[in-house]
């Protein structure tokens, strides 16, 4: 065993010495003789080593390429995870810019930082990146492009704290879209997380009033905190309570605070002068819809009436044409000529006794026709002369 090991080591040493000698000879040879010898060595003795080197180079190139592809894939994955958030944020910013352009003045933009309460994940307050130095004061309304978010509780020079409609102290005077029914919006008392975590309740609706699901609810402007017309939410259903004279409705808010990243804070001057119709639906939207529907119905009725009149006119024309055809076949003049003759006779002296219309005489002369004598129609001028012939002075004289 030891002899075989020593023999193997001697062979390896001999091969190494031979390679060194051959390499020195190849280096010492001129260029014309060096290249053929080097090519022969690469094809024979050094071929396994050259193949091993080429394989190692290919493996290294593949490994580097795989690392680059992995880095690129990870980068694309990270970008893909950020795309929905960026799209949502961009959409909110575009909506916020649109709301600001509609308001034009009287607001302060701010970035919203949500803060969850320890007992759950319901957001009840926000930290805004704008404070009293920007004109924000306590009780200023906080709004989003979709509608009402909350109100300012505390304003520091650089930041401010806002309570949301989920806070237990939140209250807002509300009105329906038609402006006929008023109530007070409270946080939903029976919220238990999940879908009911951000629900609201509308109290104080008279019993005689029934709100349909999907009806929009807006701020009424009463109380001086919120201007009229800010969207609060939509009616979901009625909540059964022990109240006898009022109803309570469950409201789905228009804004989800956990998704709000930027808001506008309305200043006191803007609250005093109102916001107008910036939320896309006026308080009298239902009344306008009713008026539009009524106008459409009246237009439809007018079109039906005109169609009926046109149909009746066509039937009258066909009837007159048929009668004229029959009269011509019997030798009588058409209805139009007969009517013109009667009108001419009435104009010349229809009121004279014993006078007969020319059309009647013509009808009597023609055999086979039964004469039709029209009623004498007094002329307007004759009536006027008869009414004027009786003078008040003459009447008094005769009575005396």
> Structural class, judged by helices and strands?
alpha+beta
Q: H/E order of the elements?
A: HHHEEEEEEEEEEEEHHHHHH
CATH topological fold name of one domain: Thrombin, subunit H
CATH superfamily of one domain: Rod shape-determining protein MreC, domain 2
Low-confidence stretches: 281-290, 350-374, 376-400
Largest sheet: 6 strands, antiparallel, barrel
| Overall pLDDT | 75
Trace the largest sheet across and list its strands.
Answer: 1-2-5-4-3-12
The overall strand count is 12
Strand portion, in percent? 15-25%
Which descriptors apply to this entry?
400 residues, Thrombin, subunit H, six-stranded antiparallel β-barrel, 9 helices, elongated
Question: Topology of this protein?
Answer:
Elements: H1 2-28, H2 31-43, H3 47-103, E1 107-116, E2 123-128, E3 141-144, E4 147-155, E5 160-164, E6 172-176, E7 182-187, E8 200-206, E9 216-219, E10 231-239, E11 246-253, E12 262-266, H4 268-273, H5 285-330, H6 335-349, H7 358-365, H8 380-389, H9 392-399
Antiparallel strand pairs: 1-2, 1-12, 2-5, 3-4, 3-12, 4-5, 6-7, 6-9, 7-8, 8-11, 9-10, 10-11
Task: Walk me through the structure.
By secondary structure, the protein is α+β, with helices and mostly antiparallel strands. Among the domains are: 179 residues, Beta Barrel (Thrombin, subunit H), CATH 2.40.10; 97 residues, no CATH class. The strands form two sheets. It has a six-stranded antiparallel β-barrel with strand order 1-2-5-4-3-12. The chain has a six-stranded antiparallel barrel with strand order 6-7-8-11-10-9. Strand 10 and strand 11 form a beta hairpin. The N and C termini lie far apart (179 Å). The C terminus is likely disordered.
